[in-house]
Amino acid sequence: MPDGTLIWVTGASQGIGKALVEAVPWPAARVIGVSRGAGPAPVHLAADLADPGGWDVLEASFHRELADFSGGRVVFLHAAAAIGPIGFAGETDPDVYRASVLLNAAAPLIVAEAFLRAGRHLRCRRQLVLFTSGAARRAYPGVAAYGAAKAAVDQWVRAAGDEQTRRGDVQILSINPGRVATGMHEQLRGTTDDHLPDHAEFVRLDEEGLLTDPREVARKLWSLLEDQDIKSGQVLNLADY
Questions:
Q1: 13 CB contacts (<8 Å, ≥6 apart)?
Q2: pTM of the complete model beyond 0.90
Q3: Range(s) of the domain holding residue 120
Q4: Distances in Å between the alpha carbon of 125 and those of 72, 176, 241?
Q5: How confident is the model at residue 228 (pLDDT cuts 50, 70, 90)?
Q6: Euclidean distance between the first and the last CA atom of the chain, given in angstroms as a whole number
Q7: Residue 185 belongs to a domain
Q8: For the domain that residue 97 is a member of, what is the CATH number?
Q9: Average per-residue pLDDT in the chain?
Q10: pLDDT of residue 3
């Protein structure tokens, strides 16, 4: 086990984030779970990342924890996301839509940049993982904002990851976990064709048992992060590993 490991996981109270916390492979690691409600992480940081105030809470945690950090590894896994509102642009609840854009598009770029800045003085191994989706490349009517947000995340990772190979040396990755059995897919199945034209596809994935267990995603992701040959700035599909 790395000597002195510090981990942040956002979205830590449910879905992939919760599974990542429960599957941390280093028993002595300090694990901080970031979410609105408490989850399984030993340390809970209460923050709503659909609210810019929550970004400030997380940034303050980065600076507080990393100021005098002398351990061997720091990992930030940003899994917080929300699919909603499901519906055509211009037809959804504007408040819910705005919160979704803030959480899915703005928050990843803001908190990731804050993590980089807070740890600039460190020379230990540092890893930053954001999560992408097939919706970043395929347009799904009904979840346009979600897909656009994931495309933005991917492009940020490519550019910022390249920057880190030149100066900084943080491994930045965007990882597509695939189709996972989470509350997000439950929401997609629970809507109608009128709001989500591809609704039948999401129902079929569940009926045919094609959704991956979040625990399997977490196991594979932690294993992937042990591969030191993976270069910063890559957008990866977890199914390839």
A1: 33, 35, 36, 37, 38, 39
A2: yes
A3: 5-179+213-240
A4: 6, 22, 22
A5: confident
A6: 22
A7: no
A8: 3.40.50.720
A9: 96
A10: 58
